[in-house]
Amino acid sequence: MKPLLLTLLLACGGESPPAAAPAPLVREPLDPPRLLRRMSLDLRGALPSIDELDAVEADPSQLGALRDAMLDDPRFEERMVVLYQERWRTQTDEYRGMYYDFGLEMTDEYEFLRAIGGEPLRLAARVVASDRPYSDILTVDWTMANPLLASLFPIDYPDGATGWQEARYTDGRPAAGVLSTNGLWWRYVSPIFNYNRARTAAILDLFVCQDILTRPVLLDTALAPTAAGAEEAIRSQDVCLSCHATVEPISATLFGFLPEDDFSALEMTRYHPERERAGESTLGVQAAWYGQPVDGLAGLGQAIARDGRFVDCAVETAAQGLLRRDVAAEDGPLLREAREAMVQSDLSMKAALRAITDSPIYQVGALSGGVTAADAARESTARILVATQLRSVYADLSGYSWRRFGADLLDSDSGGYRVMANGVDGESLSDPLQAPGLTWALVAGRVAQTAARDIALHDLAAPAGEAFLLDQVDAGSTPADPAFREQIAALHWRLLAKRPSEATIDALAALWNEAYGLSNNPTEAWATVLSALLRDPAFLAY
Amino acid sequence: MPTALLLLLACAEPPAPAAAAPVDWTDPTADDDWTGLVPSTPIAPTWGIAEIEAQFDLAFDGGLPTPHEALATYLELLTHGDADCPGSDFNQGFAVFGLCTSAEGYSYSGAAGLLTTDERTYLDDGSWTGYYSTFSAPADYFIIRPDGTRLSAGGTFNLNDGNRGSGAEWRSSITGTWQDSGHDGWLKEGYSGTLFYDGSRDVEGNAVQNVRGTITVNGVSVAMESVRVDATQCRTGFVSGTFYLRQPDTSWFTLILPTGCSTCGTVTWEDGSTIGEACLDPRPFFSVIDLTSTPE
Q1: Which of A39, A86, A184, B125 is 20 to 30 A off residue A250, Cα-Cα?
Q2: Reported confidence tier of residue A14, pLDDT bands at 50, 70, 90
Q3: Which chain A residues are within 8 Å of B153, Cβ to Cβ?
Q4: Would you say A539 and A495 are in contact if contact means Cβ atoms under 8 Å apart?
């Protein structure tokens, strides 16, 4: 009889039992039309056209070319504004300067708020959309302004122009890209005696992804019982110096933006070159970026742009925007490839976006193989449309804008539903929520209803060729008409990027009949069908 | 235990790990091949002596900013208000959230106020001893005239006059941003800065003025340290002290005027290198030699 141990060894292959490797995680990509839809929503804030869907359905290899075309689409720049808002959060509903400080009326408030907060976002979006080196966001001598912003701030807006344009400040501020915009520093304020330290924390967070405010600090409160004591402790105590040795030299470059009065709109409107010299003398340090001396704010912008972490942070920011979640260690391959693509292309953010959207991590639609609980929690196989995406999708579909008192209700909070629909307000919500909560569902449902009615009203009265969606039927069409079913199928394809089954078409036709029976009005009937599609999970998810 | 069961147990796969295996991930901050794509561009002086002198002239062309002009302009504009707009003369100020327009067509917006302290004792000859001061509340307002010109204010000023019988003394300052498109000189161009004055005048009328602070006027930024205007020395008096002038790329020249009867001195760059000899026009400084402001 063989010894038991020998029996076991032979049975298991004659060697000691190897640790079996866990089954690999497999990311199943979305089908090509739905992946095209995801890319279009992420890069253009809009649904793909019927022609684009047909093309990729017939030949999935066209996906890459269509994606590349999206990066050159005029809507891409506007989409970048939204993505940067989610990370930089400069578009809030409240600044210390108010619309009435500039003689504006309450009805101007929304445009006032979005002009101010949009300035740095639009500068970044312009750099990305025009495919300039990404470092330009911290080094260029221009900003972005519209006529309203140019009327508020000392900006030389181009004669005869309209809309957002590249423009220059006239108050002597240094060339430091977004670091020289009022919009950034209206959002990230520093009380006078904070000496720009809060703003330095923002710089570190936004541009090198270092959140110093979350560092644990074992502070001996006895060291700093008074403001003067705190200032002394900052300069002498190790526990303080671990952060402040970095913070103070950066803060010293920002004194041109430090107001004499925390709430004076006039003080916050202008850059104050004469205060630059006060930075080093007040803080008792030489202006520097992580130990490297810099020449003022312009030098700071250049130093950050030279820091390898700047590119890493740029890639991380873009990845978070497209994956719709925080990045994790498992995203390393994606981040590394995107970073490499960016560095190899003279810091082209478009190259990074191509790499991200080419990644299986981005394209995932389902998980299989060895799926762990952590995998399931991390991977975003489906994303939901948050407020600002709903806004842009409807605007692109039909020009529909849900407004009241001059404000866009999907892009404001004081009178709108931005946060309720999972958008970022810059204050209370810092990341776009991906949980389809109750308020999100209410807002998404309500805007679907009102937009659907608006579209139906327009389309059934529109001349041939001018309908937004209902281009195969008119007010006299009935379910008995062949074009009726074709119309429903086209709507389903356009809005959901899915071919409907016959049963689905039957169900939607039945819904039309029921609505028509109640209202005797084809507009109401089509609005009901449209509303159902616009509330379909396949529309609201992507 | 049956052998078959033993084999099953022995050959079974271990349980799946609770988390995914870590991926190959390099800390990007540890990259040692990063050469940087933005070159460092050290700043060099681009202005010569002629340009430096012209820039100083431009900065002082409209006169030295004083709180006295800001106060006088404000008080004059306040006289065009009425009981409804700005609605109150409490502390010689107002608080209007939005905009109101008086019967005379002057519009007021924001918050303004003054605090005056009068501790003077009058003598038989009409002169006085003691102390008189005017402080502004933090200004955050604008006033628009019927012709559209506007005073915009964000900051503070204060004026202090004292007299101990042996002559007058004063201290004053103006900080923040002030601009009046309906005015002349520095106030029309707009002022941003922090400027402090202190001075004295003896019973014979000889005045000395000390000035320090930083200003931006006419797009030129100048800082002043230990600047002294002395009307009692030399034939016409002298100006001495240290002046700094900002080059638009945010670096600064230094001009030191030594004590003496000249208003010329050596200009140096940030690295200590000498640019040359520059002269200042002293007239703007002598025009503010006496900053007493107390009403009779």
Answers
A1: A86
A2: very low
A3: 266
A4: yes
Residues of A in contact with B29 (CB under 8 A): 308-309, 312
Best A108, A261, A274, A304 residue to mutate vs chain B (most B CBs within 10 Å) = A274
Nearest to A121 by CA among A85, A93, A157: A85
Rounded to 5°, the CA angle A136-A138-A140 comes to: 55
Distance CA A339, CA B21 (A): 23
Distance CA A186, CA A198 (A): 12
Q: What is the DSSP string of A353-403?
A: HHHHHHSHHHHEEEEEES--HHHHHH--SS-B--HHHHHHHHHHHH----E
Exposure of B209 in the CB half-sphere (CA atoms within 13 A): 25
Of B122, B111, B112, B110, the residue nearest B296 (C-alpha): B122
Mean pLDDT of the region A396-403: 95
Sequence ranges of the domains in chain A: 78-306, 308-378, 384-542
Query: CA-to-CA distance for A401 and B223, rounded, in angstroms?
Result: 52
- Where would I find the beta strands (DSSP E) of A15-112? 25-29
Question: DSSP assignment, residue A404?
Answer: E
What percent of chain B stands above pLDDT 90? 60
DSSP B212-263: EEEEEETTEEEEEEEEEEETTSTTT-EEEEEEEEE-TTS-EEEEEE-SSS--
What gap in Å lies between CA B68 and CA B178, rounded to an integer? 12
- B201-250 pLDDT per residue, tens: 888 888 899 999 999 999 999 999 999 998 888 877 789 999 999 998 77
List strand residue ranges (DSSP E) for A326-386, in order.
364-369
CA–CA distance, B273 with B266 (Å, rounded to integer): 10
List A385's β-bridge partners, or say none. none
Rounded Cα gap, residues A415 and A298, in angstroms: 39
Is the pTM higher than 0.80? yes
Check CB contact under 8 Å for B249 and A295.
yes
Q: Roughly how many angstroms between the first and final C-alpha of chain A, as a whole number?
A: 64
Sign of CA dihedral A10, A11, A13, A15: negative
Cα–Cα–Cα angle for B241, B242, B245, rounded to 5 degrees? 140
B142/A266 Cβ within 8 A: yes
- What is the SS3 assignment for A25? strand
- Between CA A198 and CA A194 the distance in angstroms is 7
Residue where the block lists tokens 């689409």? A73
Closest to A124 (Cα-Cα) out of A145, A144, A99? A144
Q: How far is B177 from chain A (nearest CA, A)?
A: 6
Burial of B100 (0-12, 13-18, 19+ CB in 10 A): middle
Residues with Cβ within 8 Å of residue A236, at least 6 apart in sequence: none
- Retrieve residue A120's tokens: 């740095």
Neighbours of A406 (CB within 10 A): 15
Cβ atoms of A120 and A90 closer than 8 Å:
yes
Q: Which among B74, B288, B118 is positioned nearest to B195, based on CA atoms?
A: B288
Nearest to A274 by CA among B288, B224, B153, B275: B224
- Sign, CA dihedral A150-A155-A159-A161, equals negative
Classified as helix, coil or strand, B211 is strand
pLDDT of residue B77 exceeding 80: yes
Q: What is the CA radius of gyration of chain B?
A: 31
Q: What is the mean pLDDT of residues A96-123?
A: 94
